[in-house]
Amino acid sequence: METGTECSAQQERLAEVNLQLCNTERKTLYRLLAALFRYPEQGLLDSLSLSLQKTSAFLNLPLPADTNQVPELIDLEVAYTGLFINCLGGAAAPPYGSVYLESDAQLMGSSCLQVVESYRSEGLNLDASDEPADFLATELEFLYYLVAEEEGAENSAVALGWKKKQGDFSRELLHPWLKEFCQRIEQTSGVHPLYAWAAEALLQFSELEQNYFSR
Q1: Residue 189: how many CB atoms within 10 A of its CB?
Q2: Which has the closest alpha carbon to 36: 87, 100, 82, 95?
Q3: Dmax over Cα atoms in the chain, in whole Å?
Q4: Closest CA to 191 of 68, 107, 87
Q5: Which phi and psi angles does 167 have, rounded to 5°?
Q6: Residue 119 and residue 146: Cα distance in Å, rounded?
Q7: Tell me: the pLDDT tens digits for 159-196?
Q8: DSSP state, 88?
Q9: Sequence-ordered list of residues with C-beta below 8 angstroms from that of 151, at least 6 positions apart, any chain
Q10: What is the three-class DSSP state of 94?
Q11: Backbone dihedral region for residue 60 (phi beyond 0: left; psi -120 to 50: alpha; all else: beta)
């Protein structure tokens, strides 16, 4: 359990890191984290070392010792399937908002429909996706899109509008379930170190983003 001093030190470190994150870095983190929480493919492994280094640098989050060696694709596929798709007794941490936001853990529940409406309001659709709208990686990609729009805004008033959209979506439909999701990953016996670290990075980045939206 963290002491008050440890918590205070962590909060000070997070605040310091948050001040250093520009929109380009925020976009990069959303894109990298989205890739980590999708089903692993060879393309992920090809860029994994650089992705982890960037994430570590932006968040001031040390890499686990065993990330120096790129894992085998089959090992990540097995680890991903057990954590997020299926294993004996059910997936440990399903990456869908409805599982955590709906009282009966119903997939495609009302919160998922809110996510769909958020996408549609920006002229986006998921016709080419096999995943529900509230799939974690898709929500992270959506926030990447909103940050890109903020970054390219023609003036500060328009930029603030895009920032508000990010804050509303994150506070209502993403941030509320990330803590439980990440805790499930961390508490899973024998969890692959890459996913344990990715969960820590995701939760830390989400906290930084909430600080950003509140300013």
Answers
A1: 5
A2: 95
A3: 53
A4: 87
A5: -60, -45
A6: 10
A7: 999 999 999 999 999 999 999 999 999 999 999 999 99
A8: T
A9: 23, 24, 27, 159
A10: coil
A11: left
| 16: in domain | no
Task: Give the pTM.
Answer: 0.88
Report the distance separating Cα 76 and Cα 14, nearest Å.
29
Alpha-carbon gap, residue 103 to 210, rounded angstroms:
24
Domains contained in the chain, number: 1
Looking at the chain, how many residues does it have? 215
Domain that holds residue 149: 72-215
pLDDT in tens, 2-38: 455 545 554 555 444 444 589 999 999 999 999 999 9
Contact indicator for 193, 35 with CB cutoff of 8 Å: no
Q: In sequence order, which residues have a C-beta less than 8 Å from that of residue 209 and are 6 or more positions away? A: 26, 166, 170, 175
Residues in contact with 5: Cβ distance below 8 Å, sequence separation at least 6, in sequence order: none
CATH number, residue 172: 1.10.3480.10
